[in-house]
Amino acid sequence: MTYDWIIDVLFWIAVVFLVGVYVSWRATRLDRLHVRVETARAALDAALVRRAAAALELAASRLLDPATSLVLATAAHEARTADADNREFAESDLSRALRAVVDQPEFVGTLTAKGDGEGRAVLEELSSASAKVAYARRFYNDAVSQARIARRKLLIRVLPLAGRAPLPGFFEIDDDPPGI
Question: Where do the domains of the chain lie, and which CATH numbers do they carry?
Fold first, then answer.
């Protein structure tokens, strides 16, 4: 009889221990997902700043006509200085401005023929920066998706394992690269 009571107590201690380990594992996973979202956001911000800098470099290169340079410089400046609420709109405007500039007939050929290879270097930098924005946005949105899926789990909602961390939001912009 005494041994049955000890076995029951040990069983419940083991159950509580295993539940504690599982809850701890879920909380750690959720924390890692939130860190992944923050890291991906930092990479996305860096890619967006690099693309805006490349657009400003193209606008200031004197390889474009003044009106086109002004439109491109304005869109790049708006993208760099936009607040959090207007960032997606400003970045989409920059994407559209870049496509409007680069997709002009004979633009690439004319630009690469000017100068001493400066035009080609600026276009390669702009193309690389635009591609990195598209990749960074996809990685960020994937991280957000994974974090949101994890936060929908019953255990995460019942036990406040997310703490006070805000629910991450997707970053949706028009990031189709210009046809360089």
Answer: 25-158 (1.20.1440)
